[in-house]
Amino acid sequence: MKKLALPGADGVTLSVQVSENSDAPPVVLLHALGDSAEDWGAVAAALAPDFHVFAVDLRGHGGSGQPGQYSFELMCGDVVAVLAGLDLHRVTLVGHSMGGVVAYLVALAQPVRIARLVIEDAPPPYPRTRPLPDRPPGQLPFDWAVVPAIAAQVNDPSRRWWARLPGIIAPTLLIGGGAGSHIPQELLAEVAELIPDCTLVTLDVGHNIHATAPDQFFNVLTEWLTQRAL
Question: What is the CATH number of domain 2-227?
């Protein structure tokens, strides 16, 4: 994987890891809060023979800029800018946790570009009470300011984005982590009912499915991609 530095929505520079298979269909990977494109390493390597893989460091993470301003909307704008800058079309967009919420918004904002959507254990923001963790000591691989900013949006009593889910036209695969995940799995079932063309698969391994059970995750992903061939 080579690294590119690409402009985001408002001047922030995004680091994007790119595989070599440039003639293959594009897959874009979006990571969770506190992670980076490196978290997708095993999945990206497994996809690379058949896909042109782009793993994005979302703003404030990894090699991307740390502008101090963070929200799901800003991250969505960054991803849209990357897709436009790379002139990517018929994209398979994969997002985990925070990256999954960003992926929902990108699919709504770019219905022509996003051909298939894959969400790993993430509903849109919903009412919840999770205390803000203390900042770990020492240097971090991401900007800690992302945490309170995203936590404020995640704890959303209005569920304002749920009403937009029926507007997602891309075939969607939703992979839930089962009883071991902190995400209420009944919310994922609700998401699957709201998105017009959505397949829900549960792998009972917890929230970090692609890291905990990479082979299972990859098998579910590639079987669905084959069924939903472009």
Answer: 3.40.50.1820
pLDDT tens digit sequence for 52-90: 999 999 999 999 999 999 999 999 999 999 999 999 999
- What type of residue sits at position 168? I
Q: Name the residue among 52, 18, 24, 50 with its Cα closest to residue 37.
A: 18
From start to end of 149-227, where are the E strands? 172-176, 198-202
Q: Domain segments of the chain: what residues?
A: 2-227
C-alpha gyration radius of the chain? 16
Nearest Cα neighbor of 118 from 81, 164, 168 is 168
Q: Quick one: residue 226, left, alpha or beta (phi over 0 = left, psi -120 to 50 = alpha)?
A: alpha
pTM to 2 decimal places? 0.97
Burial environment of residue 32 by CB neighbours within 10 A (0 to 12, 13 to 18, 19 or more): buried
